[in-house]
Write a structure and sequence with these properties.
Strands 1, 3, 4, 6, 8 and 12 form a six-stranded mixed beta sheet that branches. A hairpin with a 6-residue loop joins strand 17 and strand 18. The protein has eleven helices and 24 strands. Helix 6 crosses helix 10 and helix 9 crosses helix 10. With 477 residues, it is of the alpha+beta class. 17% of the residues lie in helices and 32% in strands.
Length: 477
């Protein structure tokens, strides 16, 4: 696979990496036996250090379980290994794999597994059909190096995949992969719930939405929260990062992009084609890609599906926090801040006939408000409420926010422009009104007030009604 385009000498050294080695693989000698190391996302098993092929035992459990797909939204996932995506499997080209699929006794459905890395009937699906409380065993030889999807193929196949039954298996080339500092496992999936995005409580699967290919959620690693906050990926300036990226589908093609980085290397669809300097790479449903990049400056890199409404309205957003010394030559940060209003101060309106979640108590308001915040506010003010210095004011421990409740409501309801001072720093910009409902405004402000050292104020829809709908001023600043 890995045709490194850096001169004939290095090409010669890397010849055979993910290349067509089927003849040598077929004749490779198997030495010994060992258990495969499996990891939950976003972790990846360590690179394989052995130089020989072995009989590798893979034991993977199928578990049906309820988990949160978003804050306060519960869904019944069908999983490989108890996670979505399923456990990452790392094997070596030429290995003889003995695969054990074990369907937990508490499961309600039979399941199987189709590994795209398998040459044989159904990728192993027929040999692995497993009833609850049973174990199926089959074996295969890893003939082709690459990054491959696996998924359940029990009828109805789409429903099993849509409930989270997919993962990645890496078949390392004979000579291994080039060394990097960090490796992570990220897999996109589209989910179909009866309730709209963010509607609280338990949400069942909606087959009609799935057939019509209209997902409620499009997420990385099974949840809107899987790669944000404390779960954000980490790296340090100067390190090289490799992402094993998959797309379980079942329907959508992913336009995978990392905001703030350029992919130095992309192994297209997990195969032998190597591309350089790529901004966005397509990952088909049931496909994968390997992307590599060196992080040059400290930043919060944002992982997205660049079909961008999916990211900010359906949940396909992740973060990688890069720490280290700044490099002003590579990236200066803002050097000027000027107001530019060619269209005047018009308030942006978004008309929606969307079902509104009713909060029964303050706890409900906070949960609902968090969803509104992630969907509408986090891109500017950041998930931790710290804003972006010189551009978007912080909401965390904000003196401007905590001093005047009505002023805060007006800012969300009517928009805001002009100079304002927050925690001693002057900001000069424009915040458009987004046409949120009275309930959404009350909920999102209650959430913000409940977080990051703020005043714990509770905002009611009646408080929102009491603030006139008009062109907003800047609160006297």
């Amino acid at each position: 696979m890995y045709k490194w385009v850096v001169g004939t000498a290095i090409l010669a050294l890397l010849a055979g990496c993910f290349g067509d080695n089927s003849n040598s693989v077929m004749s490779s000698e198997i030495k010994g036996q060992e258990d495969a190391v499996l990891t939950a996302p976003p972790n990846v098993p360590p690179p394989i250090s052995r130089k020989h092929n072995t009989k590798l035992i893979v034991k993977l459990d199928v578990i049906e379980k309820k988990m949160n797909i978003s804050e306060g939204v519960e869904y019944t996932f069908w999983t490989f290994g108890g996670t979505v995506p399923g456990s990452f499997i790392r094997i070596k080209e030429g290995d003889q794999v003995e695969f054990h699929l074990r369907n937990h006794p508490t499961s309600k459905m039979p399941h199987n597994i189709d590994l795209h890395a398998v040459t044989g009937q159904g990728g192993g699906a027929g040999a692995s059909f497993t009833l609850p409380g049973h174990e199926s065993v089959f074996s295969f030889k890893a003939l082709n190096a690459g990054l491959y999807v696996y998924h359940c193929a029990t009828a109805p196949v789409g429903m099993h995949i849509a409930n989270g039954m997919y993962g990645l298996i890496l078949v390392e080339p004979k000579n291994g992969l080039p060394k990097v500092d960090r490796e992570y496992y990220v897999m996109q999936g589209d989910f179909y719930t009866k309730g709209k995005f963010g509607i609280q409580g338990y949400q069942p699967f909606d087959m009609e939405k799935a057939i019509d290919e209209k997902p409620t959620y499009v997420v990385f690693n099974g949840s809107t929260m899987s790669l944000t906050g404390d779960n954000a990926l980490k790296a340090k300036v100067g390190e090289t990062v490799r992402l094993f990226v998959g797309n379980g589908g079942p329907n959508l093609v992913s336009s995978f992009h990392v905001i703030g980085e350029i992919f130095d290397n992309v192994y297209r669809e997990g195969g032998s084609q190597l591309d350089h300097n790529i901004q966005t790479t397509l990952v088909p449903a049931g496909g994968a890609a390997i992307v590599e990049y060196k992080v040059e400056v400290p930043s919060n890199l944002i992982l997205v599906d660049h079909s961008i409404f999916r990211t900010f309205n359906k949940g396909s957003l992740g973060l990688m926090k890069v720490e280290g010394a700044e490099n002003k030559e590579v990236y200066s940060g803002k050097t000027a801040d000027n107001v530019y209003l060619p269209e005047g101060g018009a308030i942006q309106k978004i008309n929606e006939s969307e079902q509104i979640s009713k909060a029964l108590n303050v706890e409900d308001q906070i949960k609902l408000g968090k969803n509104v915040f992630v969907k509408n506010c986090a891109a500017c003010h950041q998930l931790d409420g710290k804003g972006v210095k010189g551009a978007f004011p912080p909401l965390a421990a904000s003196d401007w926010l905590n001093q005047d409740q009505k002023r805060a409501i007006s800012a969300v309801k009517n928009g805001l422009s002009g100079n304002l001072k927050v925690n001693g720093e002057v900001y000069n910009g424009v915040m458009p009104a987004l046409g949120l409902s009275r309930e959404d405004i009350a909920n999102v402000l209650t959430y913000v007030y409940s977080e990051w050292g703020n005043s714990k104020k509770v905002i009611k829809p009646s408080d929102v009604d009491a603030v006139p709908a008009k062109a907003s001023d800047n609160g006297g600043h």
